[in-house]
Design a protein that fits this description.
The chain contains four helices and 14 strands. With about 240 residues, the chain is an alpha+beta fold. It has two domains: about 150 residues, Regulatory factor, effector binding domain (Multidrug-efflux Transporter 1 Regulator Bmrr, Chain A, Alpha-Beta Barrel); about 70 residues, no CATH class. The strands form four sheets. It has an eight-stranded antiparallel β-sheet.
Length: about 240
């Protein structure tokens, strides 16, 4: 599978929303897209655009019937819409959902491979999906190219050794099979082993010595105090 890890901050989707059975979603979702595509000009002023003026993001957002960011059961909700700022006001005749900040496993597919990819990820016991799944169309007007966003963490993932935020593929460490490890960063963990044999206090001291290299507005002593409070909660340093 063509996958990547993406952290996405809180955003909104403004679009045409409907509700229907999960067993046969195409029957009631397709009319939503037809309605939205015919009237996107009505929301042009309040959605996000790229530097060239093109629509920044087209989403097929999903939600549970109570709109609590939970996965579908027998019935679900779907919104065919465009990306917008979370505080954007909704024009008459349109709906808005605010999608929380999350880290996603993103899988690229086509309409033909969508069902296979969706089932494969959802049935993979090593992947813990924490909320509703969304479809993203990176080429507006081309429905055959899409990315499926599977939320795997609320907010941002942090290295469970040094606390570094991990927002993109190259930030993650690797397992023995060179596959991505989602607990530790590339600086702490490589090929299934930690890159340095350190105690927690030694890790804190190492991070503190490098604090000036990072864009963090705090003193070295303030950073050490925060790390001493938070590091015992990280997986590597937890005691039985």
């Amino acid at each position: 599978m063509n996958t990547k890890i993406v952290y996405k901050d809180r955003f909104a989707v403004i679009g045409k929303m409907g509700q229907g059975p999960a067993e046969n979603p195409g029957k009631w979702i397709q009319p939503l897209w037809q309605n939205a595509n015919a009237h996107f000009s009505e929301i042009s002023a309040c959605i996000r655009h790229n530097e060239d003026g093109a629509i920044a993001g087209v989403w097929g957002a999903m939600n549970d019937v109570n709109e609590q960011n939970k996965r579908w059961d027998e019935t679900g909700k779907y919104m065919a819409g465009c990306e917008a700022d979370a505080d954007t006001e909704v024009p008459d005749g349109w709906s808005k959902w605010v999608i929380p900040a999350q880290t996603y496993l993103v899988v690229k597919c086509t309409q033909e491979t969508y069902a296979y990819i969706f089932g494969r990820v959802c049935n993979d016991k090593s992947i813990h999906i924490i909320g509703t799944v969304h479809e993203y169309y990176p080429e507006p007007g081309n429905p055959n190219v899409l990315e499926v966003y599977f939320p795997i963490a609320a907010g941002m993932l942090f290295c469970q050794s040094c606390g570094m935020p991990m927002q993109k593929d190259e930030d993650f460490g690797t397992n023995k099979d060179r596959g991505r490890d989602e607990d530790y960063c590339v600086y702490c963990y490589k090929d299934g082993a930690f890159t340095a044999d350190l105690t927690m206090d030694e890790m804190i001291a190492f991070c503190a010595e490098n604090i000036e290299k990072w864009d963090i507005k705090m003193t070295k002593d303030e950073a050490i105090a925060i790390m001493k409070q938070n590091f015992p909660k990280l997986k590597r340093w937890q005691t039985a």
